[in-house]
Amino acid sequence: MIQVESADQFLKQVSGSVAEGERIRLCIQCGSCSGVCPFGLWMEFPPQAIIASLRAGELKPLLDTDSIWLCVSCYACTNVCPAKIPLTPGLLSSVKAEKLMKSSVPTELQDALVNARKYGNTVGESPRKRADWTADFTVEVPILAKTKKPVDVLWYVGDYPSYHARVQQVTRATAKIFKALGVSFGILGPEEQSDGDVFHLAGERGLFELLASKNAKTFEKYEFKEIVTTDPHAYNTFKHEYPKLGYHFPVRHYAQFLHAHLNRLRSLMKNKLEARVAYHDPCGLGRANDNHIYQEPREIIEAIPGAELVEMGHNRTTSICCGGGGGGMWLDGFAWEKAGTRTSEWRILEAVAAGAQILAVACPYETPRFDDAVKSTNHAKDIVVKDIAELVADALQG
Ligand code: SF4
Ligand code: SF4
To answer: By alpha-carbon position, which residue is closest to atom 4 of ligand 1?
Structure first.
């Protein structure tokens, strides 16, 4: 990508380099995109205004503001656009790419970019520590470079599930379920690199392509039937973005994998939960993914003995983003300064209003974000946050 100098050049670049980018010409300025955006109120240029500005030949005012960094790549705008314009992965990430080329990026996100280049993960940890969560763990977790044996499942664990103390609990729960199901699986450990989705959506396409090529080369070293991911972002990027670079691997998110084993899980889950559970649809399994993974997580929850599924007002296509996608995980300080609100708190209030005692999630960004929101909204006595994998693992007998 080259740095563009004019609105016309920018429009030509989006039209030429983004799949279906030429649809940008079909915008009818209805404003649905800006209206549905969780941060639209605080953006100087929400999606509709970006297109209006470009049509007026104005690029500089758009690039002079930093409000694009309020965009958390939730796909809500893309989902409602009647003209089917690829806003999130096209227009918005292209604006972010221009900002990156001008080095106009909030420091927190810049740090994540540097970490991923230097260490292969967004959290700035040593790659050698990537499988430390397996130490002193009751379940044996094979690392493919050591076992050198074919497996059915190459489990792509991801950055947060490997390194973040809270999310490691989810990772261990997933390993327990694999063991209970007798799944033949292995992980990459230190060989695993960040999947790159966040950088693709944040406009850092060079870094995304570098990480994708490293991961693809590693995947090709091993014999497996499919990749199963903990993270919806990894699932999406392996499924939709890696093939555009020539890397094709069969992949499922773990919710799909568990759902496919639901009959067997039903017979293994004997411990009762006795709680009302609301499920938070992650953007990465729904809107970002042709809206098709809504039912499987709900059916897993309903299969847990004693679990009563309740719905929040915003669910499925209208689910409210936790605020962590598209680089949002590293932009909390920026977003708070600009908007003074957190979507994760909206979601906790909505779950409590729905009568839920548990907010079930299926994305590694969500447990820490919603845990914080439970505390900051003073609802620690009313609700807890659990990943679906934790709920299933807790229900397993023994
Ligand atoms: S929703 Fe689509 S058509 Fe409507 S203003 Fe936004 S980009 Fe244009
Ligand atoms: S992707 Fe989400 S946060 Fe970004 S502009 Fe669209 S609606 Fe707003």
So the answer is: 30
Question: Is residue 303 exposed (0-12), middle (13-18) or buried (19+ Cβ within 10 Å)?
Answer: middle
What is the reported pLDDT for 41? 96
Task: Write the pLDDT tens digit of every residue in 222-276.
Answer: 999 999 999 999 999 999 999 999 999 999 999 999 999 999 999 999 999 999 9
* Residue nearest atom 7 in ligand 2 by C-alpha distance: 37
Closest-CA residue, ligand 2 atom 1, reads 73
- CA-nearest residue, atom 5 of ligand 1: 29
Atom of ligand 2 nearest to the CA of 47: 5
302-336 pLDDT, tens digit per residue, is 999 999 999 999 999 999 999 998 889 999 999 99
| Dihedral over Cα of 353, 356, 362, 363: its sign | positive
Query: pTM here?
Result: 0.96
Please give the distance, rounded to the nearest whole angstrom, from the Cα atom of residue 135 to the centre of ligand 2. Answer: 40
**Does the CB atom of residue 277 touch ligand 1 within 6 A?**
no
99 touches 107 (CB < 8 A): no
Q: At what angle do helices 93-101 and 7-17 cross, to 10 degrees?
A: 120
> Which of 68, 87, 314 has most ligand 2 atoms within 8 Å of CB, for mutation?
87
Question: Taking Cα atoms as reference points, which of 325, 322, 342, 320 lies closest to residue 333?
Answer: 342
319 Cα: distance to centroid of ligand 2 (angstroms): 13
- Domains for the chain: give ranges and CATH numbers: 7-101 (1.10.1060.10), 107-259 (no CATH), 261-395 (3.40.50)
Inter-CA distances, 118 with 114, 121, 152, 193, 292, Å: 6, 8, 31, 11, 35
**Burial letters 92-128, b for 16+ CB under 10 A, else e:** bbbbbbbbbbeeebbebbeebbebbeebbbbbebebe
Using the atom order of ligand 1, give the atom closest to the CA of residue 91: 7
Closest alpha carbon to 202 in 97, 333, 74, 312: 97
What lines the ligand 2 site, CB under 6 Å? 36-40, 47, 71-77, 87-88, 92
